[in-house]
Amino acid sequence: SSMSRRIQPEYPRIPCITPSWDNSPRCRQRATVFIESSPALFQQWAANTLAKLKNSRNIPPILFINAWNEWAEGNHLEPDQRYGRSYLEALREALRSVDGG
Question: Domain-by-domain residue ranges, the chain?
Fold first, then answer.
């Protein structure tokens, strides 16, 4: 949620969301780890970001999602054994909530 509250720069910046992140195997002490990430939090982040895009005149209606299958950093939309298709379904619901159905 802290990512969605960041002050936006004066120039257009295309937002990026991610289901999760953990680069501790590669970065050790300087790692960035999303703690307690979940499909529900991802859906909320996606919906908030999509709503901002929809209501903005200054940002192109483009959203980057990182990533489909970045397994090395625990960052993937691709179905897995723990959550199944939940992240994909969360994205679908976020899109529906902004599009009205």
Answer: 38-101
CA 86 vs. chain centroid, Å, equals 13
Q: From CA 101, how far away is CA 5, in angstroms rounded?
A: 26
Sign of the Cα pseudo-torsion (55, 59, 60, 62, in order): negative
Alpha helices in 1-101 (DSSP H): 24-27, 39-54, 86-99
Query: Tokens for 21?
Result: 């992140």
Q: Select from 46, 49, 53, 48 the least CA-distant residue to 87.
A: 46
3-class SS of residue 14: coil
- pLDDT tens for residues 7-46? 767 787 899 999 999 999 888 889 999 999 999 999 999 9
Q: CA-CA distances (angstroms) from residue 94 to 33, 43, 46, 100?
A: 23, 6, 6, 10
What is the distance of C-alpha 56 from the center of its chain?
18
In the chain, the amino acid numbered 94 is A
> Does the reported pTM lie above 0.70?
yes
